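Progress report, Aim 2. The chain analyzed during this reporting quarter is listed below.
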Amino acid sequence: MDVNITEEEDNQSEDSSFSMNQSRTVDNQDHNIVLLHIPGTTTYQIPPIPNSWPAFVQERLRKIPALVNLPDMSTIQMDTTFRRQDFSVAFGSNPQALDTAWNKTPLAQYILGDKGSRFILGPMPDWNFFCPHSPCASGLIFRPPKCPDAHGCGQKEVDANGGQPIPRTVIIRTSNAKWLYVGEYILQRSQPLDEWDQLDSWQQDCWRSKMNSKMAGYSGRSVDEVLKALDARTAKLEVFTMECIGYETEVQHMIEMLVSGNLPNISKTKSARSRNSQIKP
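Predicted C-alpha cells for the chain:
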C-alpha cells in the first residue's frame, strides 16, 4: 500500500460547496491557482486546458485520453466539498496521506487493506499545480526525485489486476481548505520532469519549502543536496499522468450525505478513530 504523508488539512469552517457559475482560486505566494469551474447546467463538460499552463504541460495533457461518458449533474451536486477528517472517520482512510486505502462501506469497519478496500489519491494543487482542477479532467502529479511509489501502475500491481493499473478515487484540495471528488483515475509513470527551469519561480519555491528529509532520502541525499540538484538539473521530479476513466455518482452521493450528516451508520467512536490511526506511512 502506498502511504505518503502530506500536509495536514486546515481546519477552516467554510461553506461546503462552490458557486456553480464561477471559478474558485487559492492564493499561494501572491499567485492564484484556478481549482475548479463547474458550469451552471446539468450537462457537464470538461473545461479546456488553461492556456496559462506551460507548453510542456499542455502537450503531455493532450496525449491523455479524455473521458467520453461524462456524469449527469442532474442527480448530484458535483461541487459539494468535504472535510477529509470527516471522510476518514466515515470510511477509514488516512486523512494525511497522498495515496491510501478506503472503504465504500461506512463505519470504517474494516482495517485498511482488507478485501474490499479501494485507494484514494489526494493531491494538493499548491505543489501539484497541474493535477485535475475540474471533475474528469486529465492531470499530472509530481513526486520527489527517485520516489519509488507506484500509485497503482507498478508491475506488481498491474500483474495482480489482470494487466491493468489499479484505479484511484481522486480528490483534490480546494480553495476553502476542503476536498472535492473529481473521479476515478489510473496513473502512469511518465518521463521525469526535464523542464524544472520552465516552472514559475513560486512553483519552484513551493517544492523548496515542502521538501523534507523523507522525500530527499529517496535519492539518498539531504534536502539541500536535492534542491541544488534540481536547480542544476542533475535531479528531476518524477511525473505521473492522470487519466480519468469514470465518475461514480454513487461516491458523490455519499459525500453529499456525509456533509449533510445523513450518511447512515457513521461511527465517530473512539474505536473508529483509533482504527484510522493504525495506518502508518
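Strands lie at 24-28, 31-36, 99-102, 118-121, 139-143, 168-173, 179-190, 238-246. The longest strand covers residues 179-190. These observations will guide the mutagenesis work planned for the next reporting period.
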